[in-house]
Amino acid sequence: MSALQVGVVLRLPNGGSLGPQDLELIDAVRKERSIIGASRALGLSYRKCWLSVDALNRTFESPVVATFPGRREGGAEITPFGERLASIYRSIERHAAHSAKRTLDEVIASLNWSFQKTASDADKEPNQDRASGR
């Protein structure tokens, strides 16, 4: 049995968004120090990762990821603003999960434990692509 998870997606007033996939990308860029390395680590196309980084950087006045084309020691790094943004997002996630725990316990208590997903349930899954094109 897996634990119930609370997911947070911030839909920002300027049309941008920030969600779990963005944080995975930020973490991968931090670790790999490149967008292409992050794309390999996440199993995504370089183009998708690059477009996601570009969207993140355009969403905010300060860049989230700094890129350095041609640099041998890593072509990308998370900016101080990007680190702060990731920290804020994770804080929001923790607060949301903590605040919802009691109510979610009631939801868990009402689950049908013999439920099995069918092919038609795949249609009900949230779209894995980001609403903002990321």
UniProtKB/TrEMBL annotation:
- Leader sequence range is none
Domain of life the protein comes from: Bacteria
Task: Give the PANTHER family listed for this entry.
Answer: DNA-BINDING TRANSCRIPTIONAL DUAL REGULATOR MODE (PTHR30432:SF1), TRANSCRIPTIONAL REGULATOR MODE (PTHR30432)
| Name of the protein described by the UniProt record | ModE family transcriptional regulator
Protein's organism: Methylosinus trichosporium (strain ATCC 35070 / NCIMB 11131 / UNIQEM 75 / OB3b)
